[in-house]
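A reminder from the course coordinator: this example appears on the midterm review sheet, so study it carefully.

Given structure:
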């Protein structure tokens, strides 16, 4: 599971937690049914926004069913979303996973850096893309333009220089997510929402691209890998300014759409999105800050140079299976990412310390829509 819209139980009202889990499980089971068990590894938090947008336009007419016990939710039953919304989300998840694997193949890093893994990774990327095309066809979504936009990303990066606007680099991502969001309007039976959804999707794609680049900025610098923030000279601060603008653009676009139930869209595309920005860039209110890089002497201890332990594809897959079977992915306070080795937080744990900013605010209120239910701004 990956994506910027990771759940945060402390900022999620109790009444919405089952609804969020219903979309999450609906996507996971849709991937299993339409693309096989392996495809469940591509489950993407961000793709849930598509399922939520379809439901928001249908209200009580949205499709759902009761699912059986699952280890990822503590062997509890769950009412899950079904139908075209989860299928659209599954298409997006598969396309994103395919693009990520293809990037590793072409760059010769990540899972493709392992001996003999490059060919297998390429075949896997092609199969995921083919599965996405089949699901897309079932909901009337042509995936060829989306694939073309994704493949144009590499051309844009090759032509990128110090004078290139950062928005030029994010443009292919924006184009792909804009079309996915616009199709949510078609599936929801509200074609008049296509234009505002397309604008919201473009802003969402820009935001996701910027957050990913900012998260990888230090690591890419250490590895000598290409990063758009370094290549364009924008830096993390330049990305932060654009990210805040993308948040405002997405909120304005969704406000102009006609929705029956805005509850879940507000949770994912407003509250979770703003939390992702605060977590990546830091804020005047959030307790999280980007770690400072220290360049000390050669006599620093081994702990000063600690780096997350990265695993290969198969070792990571085994680690992922263990995390699933022991429910650590959803219930653990902290665990190591199966592939990256980075610290992660369980998506359904009882509390998280990333939402303690209310302790420094005197204007907290659950209905105010602040950084974690408080009226103060996290800018």
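Designed residues:
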């Amino acid at each position: 599971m990956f994506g910027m819209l990771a759940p945060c139980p402390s900022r999620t009202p109790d009444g919405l937690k089952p609804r969020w889990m219903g979309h999450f499980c609906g996507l996971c089971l849709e991937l299993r049914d339409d693309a096989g068990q392996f495809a469940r590894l591509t489950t993407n938090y961000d793709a849930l926004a598509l399922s939520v947008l379809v439901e928001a336009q249908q209200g009580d007419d949205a499709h759902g069913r009761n699912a059986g016990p699952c280890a990822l939710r503590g062997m509890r039953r769950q009412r899950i979303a079904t139908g075209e919304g989860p299928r659209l989300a599954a298409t997006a998840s598969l396309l994103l996973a395919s693009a990520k694997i293809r990037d590793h193949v072409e760059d010769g890093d990540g899972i493709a850096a392992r001996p003999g893994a490059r060919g297998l990774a390429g075949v896997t990327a092609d199969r995921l893309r083919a599965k996405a095309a089949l699901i897309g066809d079932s909901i009337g979504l042509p995936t060829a333009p989306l694939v073309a936009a994704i493949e144009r990303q590499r051309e844009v990066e090759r032509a990128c220089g110090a004078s290139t606007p950062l928005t030029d680099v994010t443009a292919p991502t924006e184009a792909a997510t804009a079309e996915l969001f616009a199709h949510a309007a078609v599936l929801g039976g509200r074609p008049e929402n296509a234009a505002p959804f397309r604008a919201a999707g473009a802003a969402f794609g820009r935001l996701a691209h910027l957050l990913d680049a900012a998260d990888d900025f230090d690591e890419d610098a250490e590895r000598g890998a290409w990063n758009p923030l370094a290549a364009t000279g924008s830096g993390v601060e330049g990305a932060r300014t654009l990210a805040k603008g993308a948040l405002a653009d997405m909120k304005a676009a969704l406000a102009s759409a006609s929705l029956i139930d805005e509850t879940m869209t507000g949770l994912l595309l407003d509250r979770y999105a703003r939390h992702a920005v605060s977590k990546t860039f830091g804020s005047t209110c959030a307790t999280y800050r980007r770690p400072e890089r220290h360049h000390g002497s050669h006599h620093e201890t081994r702990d000063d140079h600690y780096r997350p332990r990265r695993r290969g594809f198969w070792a990571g897959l085994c680690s992922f299976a263990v995390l699933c079977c022991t429910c650590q992915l959803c219930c653990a306070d902290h665990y190591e990412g199966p592939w990256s080795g980075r610290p992660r937080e369980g998506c359904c744990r009882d509390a998280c310390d990333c939402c303690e900013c209310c302790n420094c605010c005197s204007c907290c209120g659950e209905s105010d829509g602040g950084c974690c239910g408080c009226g103060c701004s996290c800018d």
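The longest strand covers residues 64-70. The beta strands are 64-70, 76-81, 335-336, 343-344.
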